Amino acid sequence: MAIDGAQTPNGRPLSATGGFGAAYLWRLGWMAAVFLAAGAAAFTDATSLYVWLALAAGGVPALAALAVGERRDERLQSLILVLWATCGAGAATVTGGVSGAMSAWILAPVAAASTLSSPRRLAEGASLALVGGAVAALTQLSGLAPAAPEGPLAFILGFLSVATVGVGLASGLILTHRVARERDSRHLGELNTLQTLVDGAPQLLLVVNSIGRIKTLRGVAPRGVGSVNLVNEGLVTVATAGDRQKVSAALAAALEAGEASVSFAPLLDPARTVSLELRLVSPALLVGVMRDATVERARETALQQARAEAESLAAGRARFLANMSHELRTPLNAIMGFSDIMRARMFGPLTDRYGEYAELIHESGRHLLDLINDVLDMSKIEAERFELTRGEFDAREAVTAAMRLMRVQADAAGVQLRGVLPPGELEVDADRRALKQIVLNLVSNALKFTPRGGQVTVTADGHDGEFELVVADTGVGISPEDLERLGRPYEQAGGVDQRAMGTGLGLSLVRAFAKLHGGEMHVESRMGAGTSVSVRMPVLLHASRPMPATLEPMAEPEAEPELGPNVVKFAPPR
250, exposed or middle or buried, with CB in 10 Å at 0-12, 13-18, 19+? Predict the structure, then answer.
């Protein structure tokens, strides 16, 4: 058991060879001395009952301490010291008081506490001894104490008390000295280790006063910085002339704000870079770390250059895509215009085969135009050149118009397209074309991943100043791996057939349009259970205002999407 936190130099607690081990040996010696004294007193004729009581009182605390052993219970140790004090004072009282043969046993709690090598226990033992001595003295002065033994018995009892207490105090003193020596040795070892670490550090540690003079240096100076120059000439002089103002400013900033950092070129090697970090530890004293930052500076410069090149390449790509999109749309519009003329048979009839080809040309041109428009929008967004054309309008109108355009595609795919719209107006301040494009892209993606017989539901609502659009399908769902990639430009999910039907810009455009409006997009999906994409934008002006009682819901044309049995349809404003 350790001695109240005392440790050996290697950090282990003192074992039974010291500390409580010494206390244990002293208790055994105390008991042996009591038995020897009792045996010697038995051969004397003057031995009285008080002498036997005194010897018994001396043995009781020793037996109790031996029974307790090396337990570190604080309360139990205090009780044992109280027992030492009580029995020692009692033994001294029945053998003549403070001037009697066994008066030395009044110091028994001090001797017992000293073997524990604990300053707190020693103070406690001294206090108890003082109380016990006071009780013995008062008893003697009042005449209540028995007469002191005389002759050989007095010598035996006096030698017993002095020897036992003296050995205890001596062993405690030796043990305390040993613990102090071990503690000093441990501290010295720790100090040497710390000094080795500091002196061998790859940085230069320094202590600087308020005017830049170096008070202490430890560690290794960076290349280009001379320790002699630092000590003799000050901190600022180690930098080149062009960087000295920066070092002075950092010193002033650290004194004012508590910390500062600066990079500078050292005077002895201007091609290198040195980093200095300062921290205020007292009103006029700073500690600093100076290290070679040449490699870090070169890496940072390389990263900045690479970033600039990447941004330049991205901007060039965006410009190229924008220009190419414009160049492609010009002949594509002509192709679609001519195919419209052929489909309308404006210059005469066409055979069925040519009519079919005209329809295919027009359909392919429309698909290609949609792809080009997506690429053009994304390139503008990436180049931060896309500008919203905001206006106030009823969001239900834009949602319904987009769904009307997707109705043919839904019928061809065999998927039921339905909308859930509120009966009142959803007045928003947004870009009408962007909102329509959001609906088109989300519905198109939903149809792409929903097998025949499935359902796609478009829900629009508004609350708390936010317009919310949710497009949910009963399709095949999206795998977690694909879900992490979706929303990035040109990233696609699904199999080869689905990926061949687009460019991977649909969801990225939806996310970009929502972000431009200050909103966000969330995608939730589970394999085999469908997908739900929600878009929330803080563009709502008035939400779900009840329609006037004079206006009756009007039936929608056949071309409009199916809205479901519990949804109120409305007539778009003209």
Answer: buried
